[in-house]
Amino acid sequence: MCVIIDMNTLSCVFNPENKEHNEFKSVLDWIEKGKGRIVYGGSKYLTELAKMTHYRRILIDYGRKRKTIKLDDYKVDQKQQEIEGIIKHPDFNDSHIVAIIIVSGCRLLCSKDSSSYPFIRDKTLYPSKFGKVSIYKGTADKDMLLSWSVNKLCKRCKEENR
Predict the structure, then answer these.
(1) How far apart are the C-alpha atoms of 50 and 12, rounded to whole Å?
(2) 2: closest CA among 148, 153, 122, 112?
(3) DSSP alpha helices (H): ranges in 15-137?
(4) Is the dihedral of CA 39, 22, 137, 90 positive or negative?
(5) Which range of residues forms the domain containing residue 125?
(6) pLDDT of amino acid 79
(7) Are 3 and 157 in contact (CB under 8 A)?
(8) For residue range 3-18, what is the model confidence (pLDDT) as tens digits?
(9) How far is CA 5 from CA 39, 41, 86, 141, in A?
(10) Which of the 8 DSSP states describes residue 106?
Protein backbone atom coordinates (compact mmCIF):
# COMPACT_ATOMS: atom_id res chain seq x y z
CA MET A 1 0.00 0.00 0.00
CA CYS A 2 1.90 2.94 -1.39
CA VAL A 3 1.89 6.67 -1.90
CA ILE A 4 3.98 9.00 -4.02
CA ILE A 5 4.73 12.19 -2.11
CA ASP A 6 5.26 15.23 -4.33
CA MET A 7 8.05 17.57 -3.26
CA ASN A 8 5.52 20.29 -2.51
CA THR A 9 4.05 18.21 0.32
CA LEU A 10 7.14 16.66 1.94
CA SER A 11 7.26 19.44 4.50
CA CYS A 12 3.50 19.25 5.07
CA VAL A 13 3.73 15.52 5.79
CA PHE A 14 6.95 15.32 7.80
CA ASN A 15 7.32 18.69 9.55
CA PRO A 16 5.02 19.19 12.55
CA GLU A 17 5.90 22.90 12.49
CA ASN A 18 4.46 23.31 8.99
CA LYS A 19 1.17 25.25 9.12
CA GLU A 20 -0.46 22.62 6.85
CA HIS A 21 0.84 19.60 8.78
CA ASN A 22 -2.57 18.80 10.26
CA GLU A 23 -3.97 18.41 6.74
CA PHE A 24 -1.27 15.84 5.90
CA LYS A 25 -0.60 14.22 9.28
CA SER A 26 -2.83 11.29 8.33
CA VAL A 27 -0.33 10.34 5.63
CA LEU A 28 2.52 10.41 8.15
CA ASP A 29 0.55 8.32 10.65
CA TRP A 30 -0.38 5.82 7.92
CA ILE A 31 3.29 5.45 6.97
CA GLU A 32 4.60 5.26 10.54
CA LYS A 33 1.88 3.20 12.21
CA GLY A 34 0.14 1.53 9.32
CA LYS A 35 0.91 -0.23 6.09
CA GLY A 36 1.88 2.88 4.11
CA ARG A 37 5.03 2.92 2.01
CA ILE A 38 6.56 5.74 -0.01
CA VAL A 39 7.34 5.17 -3.69
CA TYR A 40 9.98 7.32 -5.33
CA GLY A 41 12.67 7.34 -7.99
CA GLY A 42 14.00 8.92 -11.14
CA SER A 43 16.68 11.54 -11.67
CA LYS A 44 14.41 14.57 -11.38
CA TYR A 45 12.82 13.41 -8.13
CA LEU A 46 16.22 12.57 -6.65
CA THR A 47 17.68 15.90 -7.78
CA GLU A 48 14.83 17.77 -6.11
CA LEU A 49 15.18 15.60 -3.02
CA ALA A 50 18.94 16.27 -2.84
CA LYS A 51 18.15 19.97 -2.35
CA MET A 52 16.01 19.04 0.66
CA THR A 53 18.61 17.15 2.70
CA HIS A 54 16.44 16.85 5.81
CA TYR A 55 13.70 15.04 3.89
CA ARG A 56 16.24 12.97 1.98
CA ARG A 57 17.50 11.68 5.34
CA ILE A 58 13.93 10.93 6.38
CA LEU A 59 13.39 8.82 3.25
CA ILE A 60 16.66 7.00 3.85
CA ASP A 61 15.54 6.26 7.41
CA TYR A 62 12.17 4.99 6.20
CA GLY A 63 14.03 2.84 3.68
CA ARG A 64 15.84 1.12 6.55
CA LYS A 65 12.44 0.42 8.07
CA ARG A 66 11.17 -1.03 4.75
CA LYS A 67 8.73 1.85 4.38
CA THR A 68 9.93 2.95 0.94
CA ILE A 69 10.06 1.48 -2.52
CA LYS A 70 12.92 2.91 -4.59
CA LEU A 71 12.21 2.54 -8.30
CA ASP A 72 14.71 1.91 -11.06
CA ASP A 73 15.82 5.46 -11.97
CA TYR A 74 16.51 4.51 -15.57
CA LYS A 75 12.96 3.19 -16.08
CA VAL A 76 11.45 6.31 -14.53
CA ASP A 77 13.69 8.60 -16.62
CA GLN A 78 12.81 6.75 -19.84
CA LYS A 79 9.10 6.98 -19.11
CA GLN A 80 9.49 10.67 -18.21
CA GLN A 81 11.08 11.35 -21.61
CA GLU A 82 8.19 9.58 -23.35
CA ILE A 83 5.66 11.70 -21.47
CA GLU A 84 7.52 14.92 -22.24
CA GLY A 85 7.32 13.98 -25.90
CA ILE A 86 3.54 13.70 -25.63
CA ILE A 87 2.69 16.76 -23.49
CA LYS A 88 4.34 20.04 -24.28
CA HIS A 89 2.46 22.45 -22.09
CA PRO A 90 4.16 25.28 -20.15
CA ASP A 91 2.15 24.49 -16.98
CA PHE A 92 3.16 20.82 -16.92
CA ASN A 93 6.32 20.33 -14.89
CA ASP A 94 5.49 17.03 -13.24
CA SER A 95 6.22 14.53 -15.99
CA HIS A 96 8.46 12.73 -13.51
CA ILE A 97 5.47 12.19 -11.20
CA VAL A 98 3.44 10.65 -14.02
CA ALA A 99 6.45 8.47 -14.83
CA ILE A 100 6.68 7.29 -11.21
CA ILE A 101 2.96 6.49 -11.25
CA ILE A 102 3.28 4.42 -14.43
CA VAL A 103 6.49 2.59 -13.51
CA SER A 104 5.32 1.74 -9.98
CA GLY A 105 1.65 1.16 -10.68
CA CYS A 106 0.98 3.28 -7.58
CA ARG A 107 -2.11 5.37 -8.20
CA LEU A 108 -2.10 7.41 -5.00
CA LEU A 109 -0.33 10.77 -5.06
CA CYS A 110 0.03 13.18 -2.16
CA SER A 111 0.25 16.68 -3.65
CA LYS A 112 -1.03 20.21 -3.29
CA ASP A 113 -0.02 21.34 -6.78
CA SER A 114 -3.50 21.90 -8.19
CA SER A 115 -2.12 23.13 -11.52
CA SER A 116 -0.71 19.64 -12.13
CA TYR A 117 -3.94 17.74 -11.31
CA PRO A 118 -5.43 17.85 -14.83
CA PHE A 119 -2.20 16.43 -16.25
CA ILE A 120 -1.83 13.82 -13.51
CA ARG A 121 -5.40 12.67 -14.17
CA ASP A 122 -5.06 12.68 -17.98
CA LYS A 123 -5.97 9.08 -18.85
CA THR A 124 -4.26 9.33 -22.24
CA LEU A 125 -0.87 9.33 -20.49
CA TYR A 126 -1.44 5.93 -18.89
CA PRO A 127 -1.69 2.41 -20.28
CA SER A 128 -5.22 1.25 -21.08
CA LYS A 129 -7.13 -0.10 -18.08
CA PHE A 130 -4.66 1.63 -15.74
CA GLY A 131 -7.44 3.12 -13.64
CA LYS A 132 -7.95 6.43 -11.94
CA VAL A 133 -5.13 8.22 -10.13
CA SER A 134 -6.23 9.50 -6.73
CA ILE A 135 -4.72 12.64 -5.22
CA TYR A 136 -4.54 13.16 -1.47
CA LYS A 137 -4.88 16.91 -0.89
CA GLY A 138 -5.75 17.04 2.79
CA THR A 139 -7.84 15.53 5.57
CA ALA A 140 -10.94 15.45 3.37
CA ASP A 141 -9.16 12.67 1.43
CA LYS A 142 -8.34 10.63 4.55
CA ASP A 143 -10.42 7.67 3.32
CA MET A 144 -7.89 7.16 0.52
CA LEU A 145 -5.52 5.76 3.14
CA LEU A 146 -7.80 2.90 4.18
CA SER A 147 -6.38 -0.51 3.35
CA TRP A 148 -9.15 -1.56 0.96
CA SER A 149 -8.79 1.67 -0.99
CA VAL A 150 -5.01 1.74 -1.22
CA ASN A 151 -4.77 -1.96 -1.98
CA LYS A 152 -6.60 -1.30 -5.23
CA LEU A 153 -4.29 1.61 -6.01
CA CYS A 154 -0.83 0.07 -5.81
CA LYS A 155 0.24 -2.81 -8.01
CA ARG A 156 3.91 -2.44 -7.00
CA CYS A 157 3.20 -2.90 -3.29
CA LYS A 158 1.18 -6.04 -4.01
CA GLU A 159 4.13 -7.46 -5.96
CA GLU A 160 6.63 -6.58 -3.23
CA ASN A 161 4.49 -8.18 -0.51
CA ARG A 162 4.22 -11.60 -2.19
Answers:
(1) 18
(2) 153
(3) 21-33, 43-50, 53-64, 73-86, 95-104, 117-120
(4) negative
(5) 2-160
(6) 96
(7) no
(8) 999 999 999 999 999 9
(9) 8, 11, 24, 14
(10) B
59-29-120 Cα angle (round to 5): 65
Q: 3-class SS at 133?
A: coil
Dist. CA 21–CA 12, nearest whole Å: 5
**CA R_g for the chain:** 15
Q: Largest Cα–Cα distance of the chain, in whole Å?
A: 41
Q: What are phi and psi of 18, to 5 degrees?
A: -65, 135
Domain count, the chain: 1
Beta bridge partners of 110: 5, 136
What pLDDT shows up at residue 131? 83
The β-bridge relationship of strands 134-136 and 68-70 is unpaired
Length of the chain: 162
Residues of the chain with pLDDT under 50: 148-149, 151, 153, 161-162
Q: What is the pLDDT of residue 162?
A: 42
pLDDT at residue number 89: 83
With H, G, I as helix, E, B as strand and everything else as coil, classify residue 3: strand
CATH number of the domain encompassing residue 98: 3.40.50
